[in-house]
Amino acid sequence: MLPKVRTPDEVILLDNLLSERGHSTRLHIIIETNPGLEAAFDIAHCSSRIDALFFGGVDMAAELRCDNAWEPLLYARSRVVHAAAAAGLDVIDVPYLDLTDHAGMVVAAQQAKSLGFSGKGSIHPKQIAALNDVFTPNESEIARARRIIKTFEEADTGLVVIDGKLIEKPVLRDMYRVLAIADRITQ
């Protein structure tokens, strides 16, 4: 994990050093500064070693002089999600810091998932099961993904109607992602 990344050059320098030494180390980049947020798109694309972007909300809130809460950080979170999605990377939200508020953590994880995050950091093992429940597709979501993929494969159009709802072909990317996650957890 590389914290407080401000520019793509920092990542490129580390990538070059690792390459010179023959290491295959993967990178997780934490976006938690104003310059890093501004350069998030370029950072996400600067190295093939990057597996994920992490949103560092605590430091970002301090940099932005705002509350460390969902709404004040919504733009920053969205920008990191956008950068990660454009580069095909996973994106992980800041851990929930109140260990006594389990329900609040679940809500925060659901909000993060809804925005496009693929996971949420944890600061204590007791958070892991609930976070896995939020970010792991359930049987219903897996069945829906299979059904949508099958329907598209049998159709020769860019859109289909399933359960009375029009579904366009770009939805397939998300359905394949759901199945990829499901496949990884059953291996």
Helices, strands, pairings?
Layout: H1 8-20, E1 27-31, H2 34-38, H3 40-45, E2 50-55, H4 57-64, H5 74-87, E3 90-93, H6 102-115, E4 119-120, H7 128-135, H8 139-154, E5 159-162, E6 165-168, H9 171-186
Parallel strand pairs: 1-2, 2-3, 3-4
Antiparallel strand pairs: 5-6
Notes on the structure:
- The model has no long low-confidence stretch (mean pLDDT 95).
- The chain has two domains: 8-135, Alpha-Beta Barrel (TIM Barrel); 139-186, no CATH class.
- The longest helix has 16 residues, at 139-154.
- α6 (102-115) runs parallel beside α7 and α8 packs across α9 (171-186).
- The strands form two sheets. The protein has a four-stranded parallel sheet with strand order 1-2-3-4. The protein has a two-stranded antiparallel sheet with strand order 5-6.
- The protein is built from nine helices and six strands.
- With 187 residues, it is of the alpha/beta class.
